[in-house]
Amino acid sequence: MMGKFNVAVCQMLVTDNKKKNLEKAEAMIREAQSQGAQLVVLPEIFNCLYNNDYMREMAEDFPGVTTTMLRNLAKELGLYIVGGSIPEKSKEKIFNTSYTFNPEGDLIATYRKMHLFDIDVKGKITFKESDILASGEGITVVDTEFCKIGIAICYDMRFPELMRLMALKGAEVIVVPAAFNTTTGPAHWHDTIKIRAVDNQVYFIAASPARNLESSYHAYGHSTIMNPWGEIVATTNEEESIIYGEIDLDYIKKVREELPLLKHRRTDLYRLEILEK
Ligand SMILES: O=C(O)CCC(=O)C(=O)O
Q1: Which ipTM was obtained for this model?
Q2: Which of 45, 120, 183, 184 to mutate to test the pocket of ligand 1 (most atoms within 8 A of CB)?
Q3: DSSP states of 38-73
Q4: Binding site membership of 54 for ligand 1 (Cβ less than 6 Å)
Q5: Which residue minimizes the CA distance to atom 5 of ligand 1?
């Protein structure tokens, strides 16, 4: 295992033009690699606008044009890509799905969003993913040459049980492609990222799209990399940008030794378990 590696988050501006979105993602991944990134993360629903009509229309079977682009790029550039998420069509269903490729271009993880974003904050924002999306059922922790990485999508990060289970399955980094909005973002984005990192003593990487005011959904932006002590490694505002950070695996070890939260759980008194479905 290597002690350190470099990550980048591409906070791209997603538009209603799929071809342009794919070109933008590719250009930003190339730029990130040229700056030394070994793992690059894209935001939630990066190939089309985040609303139910677009997601239904743009849903892709696997393999499709988006995943083929990611696969080829990972291989050509020799890096890991956590491909944000895209609407995936599988038989009659649509999922919000994140595909991860390794530097050989192999698909090493497919994660389907487990907690669907069905909310109604009166007078502010109403969204009902379950009108078109089906939910995934599998927790995803993937092995890489650096460490184990847990993958979840946006609303999932509000569920401490899922984040903890990923840490218990060995995740030292949790990657969450996400798109909070201008209501829930200012209220909860920063605190949720920080506390999930601190609770689980992981690096927490939250990747948002940039804010597109022409979209019906105004993403909060503010992609962030947080370290296991709750310190910001990198962050940004709502505009298009790439943020970079170093993941230091020895630092995770140090924090976990000095403050042994994972060891101090009272599993004789309470327990968290994964149920087979
Ligand atoms: O939890 C939130 O506030 C935002 C969630 C969201 O936008 C999503 O799950 O796509």
Answers
A1: 0.96
A2: 184
A3: SEEE--SS-SS-SSHHHHHHH-B-SS-HHHHHHHHH
A4: no
A5: 155
Ligand 1: residue of 98, 155, 216 to mutate (most ligand atoms within 8 A of CB) is: 155
Are 50 and 209 contacting, i.e. CB atoms less than 8 angstroms apart?
A: yes
Q: How far is the CA of 251 from the centre of ligand 1 (A)?
A: 30
Return per-residue pLDDT of the chain as tens, 277 residues: 559 999 999 999 999 999 999 999 999 999 999 999 999 999 999 999 999 999 999 999 999 999 999 999 999 999 999 999 999 999 999 999 999 999 999 999 999 999 999 999 999 999 999 999 999 999 999 999 999 999 999 999 999 999 999 999 999 999 999 999 999 999 999 999 999 999 999 999 999 999 999 999 999 999 999 999 999 999 999 999 999 999 999 999 999 999 999 999 999 999 999 998 7
Cα of 77 vs centre of ligand 1, distance in Å, is 31
SS3 222: coil
Classify domain 4-258 at the CATH class level: alpha beta
User: Which pair of structure tokens corresponds to residue 256?
Assistant: 């976990």
Contact 178, 222 (CB under 8 A): no
CA 118 – ligand 1 centroid, Å:
9
| Active-site option among 10, 24, 44, 48 | 44
- Ranges of each domain in the chain: 4-258
Residue located via tokens 């079977």: 61
Residues 9, 5: Cα–Cα separation, whole Å: 14
Q: Which residues lie across from 203 on neighbouring strands?
A: 173
Task: Please tell me the residue having the least CA distance from ligand 1 atom 1.
Answer: 155
Is the CB of residue 101 below 6 angstroms from any atom belonging to ligand 1? no
